[in-house]
Amino acid sequence: MKCPFCGHAETQVVETRVSEDGDFIRRRRQCGACEKRFTTYERPDVNYPAVVKKDGRRIEFERAKLQASMNLALRKRPVSTEQIDSAIERIEEKLLSLGVREIPSNRIGELVMRELKKLDKVAYVRFASVYRSFEDIDEFKTLVDEVRR
Predict the structure, then answer these.
(1) For the chain, percent helix, then strand, then coil, each to nearest 5?
(2) Chain centroid to CA 43: how far?
């Protein structure tokens, strides 16, 4: 593994740990040239279904996009990074378990809303208000009333 600091090609693994849930391996590495340490994570490489956008385009599923949209909805909310990561992992597991080659983007949006509703009601309303593109205040009020129940 190449050192991210100096670019030297040889690094040594100093410590290896398996995550609590066993989904990834965390390795601490040290550069042979500059002796700085850094962390790498190993995850299995899996094929997620292609995402079919509303306009018909097909794009590759990206965890980073999913995480960014959830982080935006959860901005300044009392939800830990671990809780967010767990929610994202549940969404990814669901996508894999469906066993399909393509999935509409709105289906992913529904999965995100389900997870946000469990994590934080305010984040759920934030995400839903953008995702569902409300036309008027009554639609928004209906959503808020639904969450209050």
Answers:
(1) 45, 20, 35
(2) 14
